[in-house]
Amino acid sequence: MTELKEDYLEVLEKTGVPSLIIDTKGLIVGATSAGVRDLHLSPEELRGRQYPGLDARLNLFQWKGYLEEIKKAGKFTYETDLATGKDLLLPVSVSLSFLDDELVLARFSSKVEPELPEKVLALAGKSLAIGFFSLNLISRNWTLSEGGRNLLGIELPEDGTALDAALQSLADRTTAESWSALKAEVRAALESPQTIRQTIILETGKGTQSLEVNIEVFGNALHATHLVGTLFLPGQQQTEVDDFQEINRFSIEYSRDMIFWTRPDGSISYMNHSAREMLGYPIESLPSVGDVSLGFTDDVLRDFWRQLRQEKYLEGAFELIRKDGSTFPVYATINYLRYGDQEFSCTFSRDITAQVAREKRQKLTEFTLDSSTQSILWVRPDGQVDFVNDTFLAKTGYTSEEILNQDIVKLVPEADETFRQRIWDRLRSENSFKFEVEFRKADGSLIPFLATSNYTIFQGEEYDCLYLTDWTRKKKRDQFIELAQTALDEASDCIVWLRKDFTVRYLNDTALDLVGGDMKQWRGKPVHDLFPDLKDVELRSGETVEFGLAGRDGKSHQLELAFSLLEHEDDTFYVLTGRDVTERYQREQKLSDAYQQIEELSAKLQEENIILKEEMNYNFDINNIVTVSPKYKQVLRQLSQVADADSTVLILGETGTGKELLARAIHRLSDREDQPLIKVNCAALPENLIESELFGHEKGAFTGATARKKGRFELADGGTIFLDEIGEMPLMLQAKLLRVLQEGEFERLGGTETISVNVRLVAATNRDLRKMVAKNRFRADLYYRLNVFPIENLALRERPEDIPVLVKHFLRKFSRRMGKNFTSIRKEDLSQLENYHFPGNVRELENIVERAVVLSQEPVLEIPLERAEVGAEKNQDWKTFDEMQREYIIQALRKTKGRITGNKGAGRLLGLNDRTLMSKMRKFGIEKREFLV
């Protein structure tokens, strides 16, 4: 390329046109000597410099746009300012064209030189009395007409390069005062462009003479760029002045710039041909400033002139209005001129419609790229980054200087040569594709993008135009979805999604493990294939239901299924969450069974506890046995003899003689007094429950046996068991009882475990067991086992001497209970009692005294017997009312198995309230525990 570049420069040098050679990246690779001269930069300073930047209005992105324009039209021409070595801007017209695929030729011409027609210079040369000169302040090029040289008496070479020599010659031949004044005005004009009129005193070959100097200074927004002027002798002929004025008028009239002369009142005193043509006004009908300039109100006009008078020079972009109402943009320089007492603004305007449109397109393009929500990068095949937009910089935290012209591997750690080759091979074959990639941010962290690669050829070079969509939220969403999917699949609950037609959309792994198969098999199947017992109404109700399901393992599973409705966009789903509660169900069943068993055991234990507590709370004292009868004291002596012997005792006697009292006395006098005494009324228990009551039963031994129960013998272990009314025991149990008495062992009903107990037996009966043995109603071997130590309990009629003391004992008892105070008993009543037969024995006497305490008035107790017991024969079997009540209450308790209260209690059966029944039971000495099962 170096040899080719030198060949191009050699050819271009011959043209004499200021030129630059630039590569497609915008780097200057060569310059002609004319270009070096005009820019006041050495070839070394230019070579390797970016053309965007030398062109003060151009950036790299616009440069690429210019290259596209060259490709379309073959060349591209535009006007701009180039930066010179003197820190000045050189207005130029630039023409761009391709030398080859890699090099661009930029030819430029200065716009500072006055654009005067050739005949203007010719006329100025012929007129010896008028001189013309111009000076390019940037290039230092200057021109002095032949007439000017004659007036100044200066001989100059034809190339007009001896500026410093000419100025020095002029300074030497004029007065110091004139020269200082002229320089001061020129300096002021250079600061603020204006018109200079100055007369200087000059020494020439013709002598001393005055010379009129007129200078006009022009410039841009930053500084003055050039000045032009005329020289003539005062008093020269008007014709010569007219000729020069004609030249000036012609130059201004046909300048391609639009020129206006306006006054402070807003009127336009002059418009050149270009202005009239562009605005559409004839020369004879000039508009006002307000007609051609947008927003130029009176206030704006006053402010404009105030600023112009102060600054002398203004420039900027404006909108002008054509006569037809359309508008177009111009760039104008406005000069303040004062001619005599008149003020003018001289405006030079140039149509910049094309430039504005081009700049607007460029700005829109840049704005679009930088405002895009997507990050954009242009990358070369070698990995060099040529362009990034602001969005990418904001996302990653880099500056453009840190990225541009850097290798993409700085941003993408995996983008090594192999990676790039793979991307470019695919890009060249597919033109566009998408992939996910992570970029390293300025802080070192990674940011995920979805990259769209587009294959682009720009100015003959390949680019990968990357559109990057921030994938951070998507990645997080994907991660969340993946976690949610994993959570769904691995959830311990069965999760099923149904469409609105109740077909299966999704089953998680737990559900599949339960029902078998895979997702493909179940998708689209009706939900009833999955859950046959599930009803549509249950689905729509949203209530939680529980039902059984046969799993693929062949086992029955209990499911608790909850329903919820999910609406997503236009789709409706039913979400079923099923929890396999089989184990819980089984546990609940076990707990329920156990609870029921506990309830039953608790009830049994409570009954047993009641029995034991009743025995423990029975404050028996042998000294409480009331008697003065020598016969009965003999009975008590028998108790004392047998109490410590631990032998079986059989207490015989009529009903009501106090057999239980003797049994308790034996227990209290024995070594077992600290252990329980358990009482069993064999007559009060149904035949089918006596065995269970005595020996206990195992769970399931019979219908209703929901728990193990200890029998009375187990409860009495270590103590004494009192079997009252033993003559009522069924024959089938007598053998088992005999075994317990002989071996101390038995088995619970329904059980096989042998239970050993240490129990002392005290039995009681009002039956003649010998007669029962003779009639085969009682086992002889059991009778002999029981009849080890028989004690005959005396009937009350056999110890009448105890009646008075018993009456007093019962009187004290019931008086305290009822809150009464009796001091005596009628003697005749006491005498009647002593002569009474007392078929009910002591219990009957107790009832008679209790009734008398209720009915009598204090302080003397009356015992009315004439209508009841006294008139009866001693041997009659007629039962008293109380005896009938007692027997009837006992029958009711047997029927209700000892239950007193409630709908199935004895109270309801007898038509009595619970409190009345309990009172009568206490009155008749009936114990609830005797009838409990």
Protein model, in words:
The chain starts with a helix and ends in a 10-residue tail after the last helix. It has 933 residues and is α+β, with helices and mostly antiparallel strands. The protein is built from 36 helices and 36 strands. The strands form nine sheets. Strands 2-1-5-4-3 form a five-stranded antiparallel sheet, with helices on both faces. It has a five-stranded antiparallel sheet with strand order 7-6-10-9-8, sandwiched between helices. A five-stranded antiparallel sheet has the order 12-11-15-14-13, sandwiched between helices. Helix 24 crosses helix 25 (659-669) and helix 31 (802-818) crosses helix 33 (841-855). The radius of gyration is 68 Å and the shape is rod-shaped.
Brief characterization of the structure:
41% of the residues lie in helices and 25% in strands. Strands 2-1-5-4-3 form a five-stranded antiparallel beta sheet, with helices on both faces. A five-stranded antiparallel beta sheet has the order 7-6-10-9-8, with helices on both faces. A five-stranded antiparallel beta sheet has the order 12-11-15-14-13, sandwiched between helices.
Instruction: Please report the number of helical segments.
Output: 36
**Class based on secondary structure composition and strand pairing:** alpha+beta
CATH architecture grouping of the largest domain: 3-Layer(aba) Sandwich
The number of strands is 36
Radius of gyration: 68 Å
Q: Strand share of the residues?
A: 25-35%
Instruction: Report the principal-axis shape.
Output: rod-shaped
What is the percent of helical residues?
Answer: 40-55%
Under CATH at level 1, the class of the largest domain stands as Alpha Beta
CATH level-4 homologous superfamily of the largest domain? P-loop containing nucleotide triphosphate hydrolases
Reported by name, the CATH topology of the largest domain is: Rossmann fold
- Residue ranges: pLDDT <50 for 5 or more in a row? 114-119, 867-876
Largest sheet: 5 strands, antiparallel
Number of domains: 8
First-to-last CA distance: 122 Å
Strand order in the largest sheet: 2-1-5-4-3
Rounded average pLDDT: 80
Q: Oligomeric state of the chains?
A: single chain
